[in-house]
Structure formats: C-alpha cells, structure tokens
UniProtKB/TrEMBL annotation:
Belongs to the RNA polymerase subunit omega family. Promotes RNA polymerase assembly. Latches the N- and C-terminal regions of the beta' subunit thereby facilitating its interaction with the beta and alpha subunits. It is an enzyme of class 2 (transferase). It holds the Pfam family RNA_pol_Rpb6. GO terms for cellular component: DNA-directed RNA polymerase complex. The keyword Transport does not apply. GO terms for biological process: DNA-templated transcription. This is DNA-directed RNA polymerase subunit omega. SMART domains: RNA_pol_Rpb6. It catalyses: RNA(n) + a ribonucleoside 5'-triphosphate = RNA(n+1) + diphosphate. The keyword Transcription applies. GO terms for molecular function: DNA binding; DNA-directed RNA polymerase activity. The gene is rpoZ.
Amino acid sequence: MMLEPSIDALQEKIKSKYSLVTLSARRARQIRENKNVLVENPKSYKFVGMALEEVQAEKLSIKE
C-alpha cells in the first residue's frame, strides 16, 4: 500500500519530519472541528491525510 502524498514529496515542502507531524496533527484537529478543508475533493477520508494533502498543495506551510 502506497501512502499519498509520499513522505519524500512532503519533505520537499517542510524539511523537518517533526514539524510536518506537528503541523498536520494540529491541522487535522482543526479540520475535525470545523470541517473546513483547503483542498477540493481530498483523496483521503481521514483528517491527517487531508492535512497532508493541504501541505502537498502548498495551502498549508510553516512560517520560518
């Protein structure tokens, strides 16, 4: 089973795995609470997957 988006593709957007996990977990909680997804027709039905799709689509990032 291949995960989509891949970790390699996500690390091109956000370098730190720790930051990626923290960001996606926070965003997943927000999506769960208010059902507002920033990407149209997400492939994933899980909240963390939706958050990772937002990172891949560059709708979600970390300020440096």
